[in-house]
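Page 47, continued from p. 46.
Same chain as before, 176 aa.
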Amino acid sequence: MTAPDMSRAHPVALPWPRAARSDRPPHMRVALAFVKHRVDLWLRFGRPVREVVLDRWRRVAVFAPGAICCRVRWAGNDRGAAIWQLMVLQAPTAFDDAQRVIGVVPGARILLLADGEQQVKLVLALVDAIEAAGMDASTVGVTYWRTVGDRLAARQPLPAYTAEQHAAYLALGALQ
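Result:
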């Protein structure tokens, strides 16, 4: 009996992928811009770890994994507003999948998407109400933002966010 020829053996594939994704940056970078009467990409809320100014029109906000922010996109032309869009985004952690979003690297979890002037103004009014109640909108529960997004898509009334809900969400986070 002869030994098998190992020079032709194929390498064995490992059953598990790499433990950490080295190709994904650890922080989410959100591009922001302002050109008068043409483009306005801005943050309505969120706590960036840092902001990098690229030039007088552009900057980048950098968010830690798991952080939540709200980016508003407005674009205009000679006839007025052409695009109204609002997104509540969550920065992915090392093992989360991320959706591709223009101007967001490496991507984000989209918790809420509002398209059109009417929807954007409804969500901005909700954010104003949350902040008027003394709460930081970037600490509001992920499920609330998803619920608002679902209600927008179904054209249903938007739910209010109460101090009791906020306290329960923060207490749950403290337990985990």
